């Protein structure tokens, strides 16, 4: 009986060991990929070239002020903000932004060059409504403004939606990630990990789409 129990325990231990090895084999590449993803987030651009349009994806406090600054600096003819709440117009958007940043009121002539999109609920939706706006205005190039951690996935979605458009990335680093290392900030860590998962899904969609096109 003791011998039988020993054999059972040994078999169970072997099964657990094999299961742990499988889990490790799956998680280790993901962990390595995650660290590489964070270490290779796009840096702030020094590119000062002019584009037809500036496209801002909502979702972070620093994005809209960056887009407005670029528009005021004459980096594009028009600004499109994708993913605003329904019912928000340009005047209200500027009021909220100026109150938050303490900046002086925007020149009315500059404000007249701003358009808003309120149909997008995610990054895929951002690409669809932004590209539709670009096509309607016959624009060929854009400066894309979004958070640095969001930029890799946003570029995939936009290039899938419109591979012919010229896209100049303009990543914005969230203030929180500047003041505190991501591995010490649980909220930022969870945000980056979730974004990495979404990025992988978008990347595989992109690869499969090209695979089927080639086939």
What descriptors fit this protein?
215 residues, alpha/beta, Rossmann fold, five-stranded parallel sheet, 8 helices, elongated
Helix content: 55-70%
User: Helix count?
Assistant: 8
Give the biggest sheet. Answer: 5 strands, parallel
* Count of beta strands: 5
Percentage of residues in strands = 5-15%
CATH superfamily membership of the domain at 51-175: HUPs
| Shape category | elongated
Reported CATH architecture of the domain at 51-175: 3-Layer(aba) Sandwich
Radius of gyration: 23 Å
Offer a quick outline of the entry:
This protein is an alpha/beta fold. Helices cover 57% and strands 15% of the residues.
Describe the structure.
This protein is of the alpha/beta class. It has a domain at 51-175: HUPs (Rossmann fold, 3-Layer(aba) Sandwich). It contains 8 helices and 5 strands. It has helices at residues 2-39, 63-72, 90-101, 108-111, 123-136, 151-161, 175-179, 186-214; strands spanning 51-57, 76-82, 114-117, 141-147, 166-172. The protein has a 5-stranded parallel beta sheet, sandwiched between helices. It is elongated and about 85 Å long.
Secondary-structure map with pairings?
Layout (H helix, E strand, L loop, with lengths): L1 H38 L11 E7 L5 H10 L3 E7 L7 H12 L6 H4 L2 E4 L5 H14 L4 E7 L3 H11 L4 E7 L2 H5 L6 H29 L1
Helix pairs in contact: 5-6, 6-8
